[in-house]
Each structure stands twice: as C-alpha cells, then as structure tokens.
Amino acid sequence: MAGIEVTSLHKKYPDGTVAVEHVDLSIGDGELFVMLGPSGCGKTTTLRAMAGLERQTSGDIRIGRTLVNDLPPAERDIAMVFQFYALYPHLRTRDNLAFPLRAEGKPEKEVRERVAEVARMMQLERLLDRKPQRLSGGEQQRVALARALVRRPQAFLMDEPLTNLDAELRADVRTEIKHLQAELGTTMVYVTHDQVEAMSLGHRIAILNKGRVEQVGTPLEVYDRPASLFCAAFIGSPPMNLIEVQVAEGALHGPGGLVLTPPDGLPRDRSLVAGVRPEALEVTAPGADRTVPARVVSAEALGDEIIYVVDHGGGTDVRVRMPPTVRFAADEQVGLRHAGGTPPVYDTSTEELVA
Amino acid sequence: MGTVAAHGLRKSFGDVQALDGVDLDVPDGSFFVVLGPSGAGKTTTLRAIAGLEKLDGGSVHLDGRDATADTPAARDLAMVFQSYALYPRRTAYENIASPLRARKASSSDIAAAVQQVAALLHIERLLQRRPAQMSGGEMQRVALARALVRRPRAFLMDEPLTNLDLKLRVEMRTELTRIHRALGGTFLYVTNDQVEALSMADQVAVLRDGRVQQVGTPAEVYERPANQWVAGFVGSPRISLLSCRAEGDRLVGAQGWSLPRPRWTTAEDGRPLLLGLRAEDVSVEKRGDAALTGELYALEPLGDRTVVDVRVGSETVKVKARPSVTGTPGQRVSVTVDLDRAHIFDADTGLALSTSGR
Amino acid sequence: MAISIDEAVPGPATDDAPPERRRGGRGRMVVEVLLLTALAVAMLFPVLWMLETSIKENRDVYAVPAKFFDFQITLDHYKDVFVAPGGGQSDLSGSFLNSVIVAAASTVLATVLGVPAAWAYSRFTLKAKKDQLFFILSTRFMPPVVVVIPIFLMYRALGLIDSKLGLVLIYAAFNVPFTIWMMKGFVDEVPAEYEDAAMLDGYTRLQAFTKFTLPLLVPGIAATAVFALIFSWNEFVFAIFLTSSQEVRTAPPAIAGLIGGTTVDWGLVAASAVVFALPVLVFAYLVRKHLVAGVTLGAVRR
Fold first, then answer.
1. A vs B: CB pairs below 8 A
2. Please, are residues B230 and B40 in contact by the beta-carbon 8 Å criterion?
3. Minimum distance, in Å, between the CA of residue A56 and any CA atom of chain C
4. Is B140 a member of any domain?
C-alpha cells in the first residue's frame, strides 16, 4: 500500500512539444485519484511517467517512499490497465491472468490460487477457458482489470479503460471499479477525459490543462467552486453558465437585470464573471417575485428533468435545470431568477477564481 | 414536402441480420430520432433510406411514392455523415456548393445560397479554409451547411455529434433544434445517445437488433416504455429492474422483499414479473410505507445529484439523491419506493403490463 | 497500444549486468557492420563491374590481372548501342523501342482494367469476395515459365506469335492481378464516404468516383503503374519464346542475343545493360515514397 508523490514533473519531447509543463501531485495511500482533462492536457503522459513507460525530462516520482525515476516499469510494483485491453490473444483467460505471476517466477500452486481468487472477484469463472477473441468488449476489460489485480501491486494505473465500451456497459463497469477499489483499498490513479466518470469515481480529482494542474479537489469541491474558468466550463453537464457581472449596491448585477448574491471581499474595479450552475437558476411564470423577464429558447425534456435554454437579454443564453413537472413551451415568456447560494466569481482576464 | 416512410426493411451482411423488418413513418417537418445501441441497425436504416445500401426486402417511400429503386441523387435527400465526409482537397465553400454544382445551379445562385447558409451556421470566416485547417466542431458545421444549402425533401443525420467534445455537443444540440425550427424541414436523426434523443426529438423510434421496439414522443418513451429493454436503454442512470411476482395484495421479490401491490397492476398472481424503478422515483432520504432494505454498494457524486447504488440481495437499485448525501459502502440502507410511478414488466416477454395512471 | 520507451532507461544501480552488456553491445555492432559491408560488396560488385566494363576499351575488358581503376574511359560502347556499324539505327535501338512500346502499352492496359476492378472489390460486397481476391493473387504464386508452352500453343493458333500485340496481351494478363491487389489497398484507404456524400449531392456513382476518389488515387496509381512497368520491362521468358524476329524483339532477348558465338563484345553487352536498367531506376526513384506505401499497405491492423 502506498501513496504516490509527483514533484515538479516536466516532459518535453525532442521535437520541442511540451506534453507536461509542470505537475505536482500528492496522491494518498488507498485513494482513487482521477486525472481529468481534454486530449493533449498531459494526463496520459503523467500516468505513463508514473508507470515508467515514458521518462520525464525533469521532476521526481515516488511510489511509497521509493524514488522510482530510474526504475523500469517491471520494478515499480504497479499494474496498468490500458484503453485497448492489451490481452495476449493467443492465451486463454486463465493464462492471461496467470501471466504476470508466472513472469515473476511464482510457484504454480500459488498462481492457480490467486487466479481463482481474482476470477471470483471479477466474476470471470465461466470465461476462464476462452481466448480474447471469444470475449465481448466488457468481458475483455474485466479480464484486463483482473490481470492487474492478480499482481496485488502497490498502485493501479488506469488509462481511460472505459472509453471503448458501450455507454450502458461503461456505467456498470464504472460502479464495479469504484466498489472494487473501496474493497481492496489499493491506491488507484485513473485517467479520463469524461467528467462524469471523474466525478463518480474519484475521491479527489485533478483537472489538467495544457500540461498544468488547474485544480485538485473532491468532486463536490471541484463542482461547487471550480478554480478557473476552464474548470468551470469543463465540469458539469450542461456546463456552468458564465455570466458577466458588476458589483453594485451590495449585489452582483448581471446583464438583463439578473441579481446574484455576492460573496465577501469582492474587488470592485475588475471585469468579473459569475459561475452559475443550471440548478442554481429558476424559471417561473412571468412577473413572479424577484424575476427578470425572459424567453424560452428551447426546452430539453430529459425524462427526470427539463433543461431550459433561456434568453434574458443578457447577451448569451443561460441553461436552467428544472423538475419535469414544470413545463414551458418554446418562445414562451417566463421569469428567471437566481435561486442558489453565493456563486463563485472569476476575473475575466486571469480566468481565476477571485471569491 | 417531406414525408419519409420505410416499410419492412430487411438487410443482412453475411450472416448478420442488420435490419429485420424496420417500419418507420416520419411526418413532414418533424425532428425524428432513431435511437439504439451500436449495432442496432440505425446507420444501415439511414443508408437504406438514402439509397446507399441495397435492401434485401422492404421498401422506402418518399412523399408517398415508392422510391426503393431510385438512385441516391434522385431521392432529393441531404445527409450529414458521422465522419463529416468533407472533400479533403476542396475549400469549405466548394464543399458547401457541391450539391448545387451537381444540379447545375448558376454561380450567382450558388454564391447567394452558400452565403445564406454560412450566416445561419456562423461559419462565414471558414469558407476559404480546407478541412485539414478546421477543428472537429468547424468541420461539423460545414458538413451541416452542405446538407442545408439546398432545400431537399428531408435531412438525414448519422450521429453527427458523436465526435465532438461534451461542451460542443451540448451547444450543438440547441443549435440543431434552433435550425430545425428556423427551416421547418424534416430531420431524420440517428444516435446512440439517449440524452440527445430525448432533448431534440419530436418523435423517437427505439431500435434494437434491426427491429423497432417503440415509437413515441420522448415523454412517452421515457414514461411508458413498451418493454423492459426500452425502459433500460432510455434514461440515465439505468432503470432498476427487480424480479418479483404478485401475491394477493403484495409484490413479493425474489430477493426476499415485500412491497404493497400497486392498485393498477393487472398481472395475475404467480406470474414472474419485473418491477421497474427509475432512480428519481426512489429515495434514501424520504420515509414511506413502501420500502426496501439493502446494502450501500457505491456512491457516485455527479455534482447536481449523487447516484446511490444499493444492492438488494444480488439485484441493484439506483437512487437519485441530493449531492450532499454521504455513506459508507456496506452500511444498511432503506430505500423508499413511489409505487405510483413504478413499472411492471412480464419477466418472460419483457413487455410492459398495465401502467399507472401517468 | 504499443509500449514505447523513448529514451533508454538506465539499468538498475546494482553491480552485476552492465559491464558485459556494454562490451557485448559494441562487439555486436562491429560484427553487424562487417557482415553488412560484405553483403553490400557482394551485391553491388557485379553492378560496379558492369558499369566499368561499359566504359572500358576492349583491350582493358580482357586485361589480366583485372583493371579496376587505371584505364582509359571510352564512350564507344554506348555509341554502338544506338548506332549500327555502317551508320544509321542499330538493331539494338530498335529492340529498345519495342521494349518501350510493349511495356507502356501493357502497363496502360493493366492499369485501365485493374483500377476499376480494384475499386469494385473495395466498395461492393460480392459473392465469395475473399475467395475471388485470393484466386486473383494466386496467379502470382506461379512462375510464369510454367505456362510458357501452353501460351505458345495458344498464340500459334491465334496467329499472335512474333507480334508486339501478343506480348502486350500476355504482360497485361500477368499485371492485372497485381494491379488489382495493389490498387485495392490504395482504394481502401480512401473513405467510401466521399462517394456517398457526392451521390447524395446529386452525382452519379461514376461521377463521384472520377471527381472525388480518382484524384486521391493518383499516387497509388503511379506506384502501381511503376511496378507493372518494371515487370513488363524486365520480362524475358515470354519475350524469348513468343518473339523471334528482329523487328518485334524487345531488349532483354536482344541483349541476351549478344552473348554467344565466337567472340562477345562485352563492352557492348555492358553498355546495353546499363542503358536498359536506367529508365526503371529513374521511374522507381521518382515514385519511391509510394513504393513503400504500396508494399506495406494494410500490413498493420489497427
């Protein structure tokens, strides 16, 4: 069992591209830590550096207390699960699972026991004698996971393992991974570009952008108070509404007359943007208390909620999340008001959180 | 102007039956979505309607006329491909102009039409660029523009948003709805994303293994699924299905639970049933008489809600809860059920049995 | 997903292993270089000798011990390739011309037939397509010499013996399967969606192919044509068997005909060989990038 420390990681390729600008991460022992970001943000490079598949240009990586910079992947005591399963196509499932142990030279009896144990954990018993070509995508991914498990490493590194699965299957395997990690208590570093995956899995999430870490926090921290405009736009579906505001008379005033509760200590003379989640706004009948007049641009009925796209004369349309019982038609005149708490406020030029 | 109908479409590729009798009736001017998992036959259906696939059986009717033998060009349809299929050696302008050039329109007519559609999609500044110089989102808009530049009988769209990142996808959904309202044309849209289907469609046809499972408005398909497969495919998180049977005035679960029998179920005693519960119709925070006990398996905080995964024996119940909910895996929880909003399916056929008064 | 180690990760900081590996590494490299040099010399020496022979005076050609460097250069042999002893066009230049005509015509024919066929195989589902394609490829498993006699008999019955048309036809017949196979790989690389989009735009299938797909296939066609050209140009067996007269003979049999009899004008033979090899070398160099693509296409499945 071990935490992972990444200090001042920097990776520059011979042709000049900088994959990782500067990354500091402190991953706790037994944590399910997610690295989230768009493609090219450096998350996969950082993971591969942790694994030893890429050598960083500078910076240190510690697994447990050991500095692993110079250790090849086989000696770092980590197991990796890839996006493309990477199962040996000529081996049956049970031999794929046994492979890492046999490679370590473990006695055959122990190999058999541990394979049986992990097959039971991942419900692979009836698939043990099949070759990968006779397994479905989901089954192959479970075998890949089991093969990582069987080694009982200090940490698991997962590189977007669910991307190739169907949407339905993804949700199921996601829950399994979460449950498994909680049960085993092994440190897990998980890389994804899917913010729903990140939110549902991680104990903590690190949001990466252009080779730097923009924010590290629990899902709720990252959701309620994103540290920058990038994080605000990246987490949450539909994305956060970004409303330009002015500080006046003890309140935040948005265009179109929208009024928001201001946080304390707001600087006055800067151009500011407030981040308002769709569920922090409300659409009502026109003329209701504290509302500004608005028009419904479109309504997306998603079954358990309705997302209204609303034009309140503020330049950009805002998205509002309402229960399915509240129905308005497109082009209907309505009232819009802020119903949530203090929104996070950002400086337009630095794009950082100011309050 | 633009009705599209498919009757009994049949198509196989080798020994894979891609289409197994697909029937569709797309009304003029509607935004009609064909929804299904990958491999369901959605793209094949669209290509058959476009005339790009030869059918083994069935017919395609456009504005009431049998068009099964027509070439793609003669069908007067426009299509947006999943991979955009923009001609790589031509500028955006040339790409968009292509349908008009093929039909020998005059240069001045072409220029006017291209400018108009470019303004509609906000891509005026891209017109002289080549596809290699455009981002995914920009290529998608150019592909859309190429489809919209004429006024064809109907617009066919093959999962056009799949290759875009989340933020763009959400924006484009609203865009497409706006464009549809502005143009008033018939849109036949294919996707495997049920959120897309629910948010944009006037009507949804749910496809599985080459057969249409249900056709209806998004609300109908969500609230009154025709069978347990549709109930499971539409809606996120997935509907929870629990094995049970009716016994007198109770529903008795295979995992040993017991709930009051909803008044509106007409299933006879003893028949194997599936109780369908949507995550928003169950609660771990409210109290009520109809409740199940189970073990907390996992918590998924999604920001605006937390999905609680509760294991009732070997079956799963997913519960939508407030974002601040916490718990420890393994602890006992009580799940209150709103039986008035539950679904009952026949366990053998999967068909929905009488629904509540919704 | 390939595992890539972009920089050598230094070995572990323990005492054993490194020294032996390093020494072994350098020694290995020396052996490799020696072996490759020997191979290169063995392969290139005949070519070098041929080049030298073509520019040596006749007396230097036969000199013993053999002269490598100190000889006078003469271009007389090259002149003799093209100019007959009494002035006017030589017989050899006539053979070269025949080679050009036959190779060009058979390449054009094979390409014109092969490209549409390749396109059809790539785009359409056909009965037993895999088997058909394998059958087509299998014609290349067989050394052409095996069917020389039946072809000879057929040609005699058809009156095609000793005719340029006969050669063109047989070369095209051998090139078409290869053209189909290689072009199919190139056509597969061009997404069928462009043609679909063009048809929906309002073009016919043929227009879609010519306007949108064909321009993208030009490099592939060039590479395929060069391969076909090389085969036709170098072909010897059928040329020897199916032609006899001076007017029809192509270069390979003509050059081979120079050898035999009492004295052989080796200088002329060498010069003819160099002249013969040159066009193909030039063509291959021009399309070298596409040659690699053609050979390796479809080799790696993603």
1. 103
2. no
3. 10
4. yes
Complete DSSP assignment for C203-254:
--HHHHIIIIIHHHHHHHHHHHHHHHHHHHHH--HHHHHH--STTT--HHHH
In a domain, B355, yes or no: no
Residue A267: other Cβ atoms inside 10 A: 11
- Residue B218 and residue B163 share a domain: yes
What is the amino acid identity at position C119?
W
C9 touching chain A per CB within 8 A: yes
Are residues B94 and B23 part of one domain? yes
Range list of H helices, chain B: 42-50, 92-102, 107-120, 136-148, 166-183, 194-200, 218-223, 228-233
Q: Is A297 helix (H, G, I), strand (E, B) or coil?
A: strand
Determine, for residues C197 and B103 on separate chains, whether the beta-carbon distance falls below 8 Å.
no
DSSP string across C139-185: TTTS-GGGGHHHHHHHHHHHT-TT-HHHHHHHHHHHHHHHHHHHHHH
The answer to whether residue B309 sits within a structural domain is yes
Interchain CB distance below 8 Å, A196 and B302: yes
Using pLDDT thresholds of 50, 70 and 90, give the confidence band for residue C105.
very high
In terms of CATH, what superfamily is A242-347? Nucleic acid-binding proteins (2.40.50.140)
Radius of gyration of chain C (CA): 26
CATH number reported for the structural domain that contains residue B113 in this entry: 3.40.50.300
Residue of chain B whose Cα is closest to the Cα of C124: B53
pLDDT confidence band for B356 (50 / 70 / 90): low
| Residues contacting residue C47 through CB under 8 Å, at least 6 positions apart | none
Domain that residue B123 falls in? 4-226
- Structure token pair of residue A202: 């991680």
The answer to the question of residue C60 being in a domain is yes
ipTM of the complex model: 0.86
In a domain, C10, yes or no: no
Is residue B72 reached through a cis peptide bond, with omega within 30 degrees of 0 on the bond before it?
no
> Within 10 A of C35 (CB to CB), how many other CB atoms are there?
10
Three-state SS at C66: coil
The pLDDT assigned to B232 comes to 93
Cα A160 from Cα B204, distance rounded (Å): 31
What are the residue boundaries of the structural domains of chain A, listed by start?
4-234, 242-347
Q: Is the pTM for the entire model greater than 0.90? A: no
